[in-house]
Amino acid sequence: MFGVVFPDRSYPMDPSSFAQIDPLHWLLDMKTFVGEAYHEVKELCIFLLNAGVLPPEKALAVYCQAPGRPFVFCGAVHAARPSAVLSLPWPDPADDATAGPLQVAVPDAASAKIGVSVEDLAALPLVLDAGAERRVERLALRVGENLFNFMQSFCGVDGSRLVVPMDILDRWFKKFQEKAKKDPSYLKGFAL
Fold this sequence. Notes:
single chain, alpha+beta, 5-stranded antiparallel sheet, 3-stranded antiparallel sheet, about 25% helix, protein OPI10 homolog, Hikeshi-like_C, OPI10, nuclear import signal receptor activity
């Protein structure tokens, strides 16, 4: 029905690599795949093996589960989108993980899991790559923090208002670009 590849980490795997829980649910124990380093696996490519394998109203939803946490929706593939590279948003302990409908009793809750589930397409979130959306939000927050910290160093106070020079955005952006040119890993530091 489907195949999975972990870019730069695996050959294509078919559903036989997963434990089939029932006709509509599969689980991959990340411990058998990467040991305790599940958080280093940042994305997964899932694809339908052939056309017509899913009815048009169904989708294959992908979830990840960090040890002791609920499943988090990562994205989906369906007849109109037969393949996708999905981010695996392994949650930080401070994150509020959103549980998905893939709530299956698993004897070994101490290891990370990847879950695949056949679901109604209409019941899935409109954003079919939830991890990418969270990454963009975090990136925007980090860049905003960088700008705020830069501006704060040039601020003056006028009553209850902060006053900054008119060219502050130009100065910040120029400094930001210079750092990125000098150090290619600088921008990677903003990605979480």
